[in-house]
Amino acid sequence: MVEESSNLAISLFSEILTVDQLLRNSLAKVLPKGMELSHFAVLNQLANIGTERTPAQLAKSFHVTRGAMSNTLAKLEIAGYVHIRPDWEDARRKFVAISPAGQQARTAALASVSPIISGLIDDLGPEKVKLALPILRELRQRLEPLTD
To answer: What does the radius of gyration of the chain's CA atoms come to, in whole angstroms?
Structure first.
């Protein structure tokens, strides 16, 4: 029974990792020139939340180091896609907001990746996706405490 459970876990996580890699590769190919998947993810989150975030908050939400997030934010700032300003009350802290150019870049990126994602959902069928989401969500929720 333990071996069966172990084999099932290995199969599940092998599929998840493979799907992750295949999806990342597919999306990276269609993103606008010079945009990386991490750039799109940050722009998308900033556009969706509609408020400023600190680099530390962004790093935590993406489960990456502060250094990795700082690197991504520096590239986005150079491209003009985000505005980074100091916290007027605590000079050690910064706030990040999406710029109008970032909104446009995010819209263009979304237009380029949407057909791939929508096509996959259409091919699988919305009902299958709806069945998979709670399981994937629960896996994520159980794994999150292990990464803190």
So the answer is: 18
Question: What's the Cα-to-Cα distance from 68 to each of 27, 52, 55, 87, rounded to whole Å?
Answer: 20, 19, 10, 21
Greatest Cα-to-Cα distance within the chain, rounded to the nearest angstrom: 59
DSSP 8-state assignment for residue 81: S
CA dist 62 → 49, 58, 89, 91, 131 (Å): 14, 6, 26, 24, 24
**pTM to 2 decimal places:** 0.86
Q: Are 39 and 82 in contact (CB under 8 A)?
A: no
Task: For 10-37, write each residue's pLDDT tens digit.
Answer: 999 999 999 999 999 999 999 999 999 9
CATH of 2-147, one of 1.10.10.10, 3.40.50.300, 1.10.3720.10, 3.40.50.2300: 1.10.10.10
What pLDDT band is residue 148 in, cutting at 50, 70 and 90?
Answer: low
Q: How far apart, in Å, are the Cα atoms of 132 and each of 104, 126, 129?
A: 32, 10, 5
| CA–CA separation, 101 and 81 (whole Å) | 5
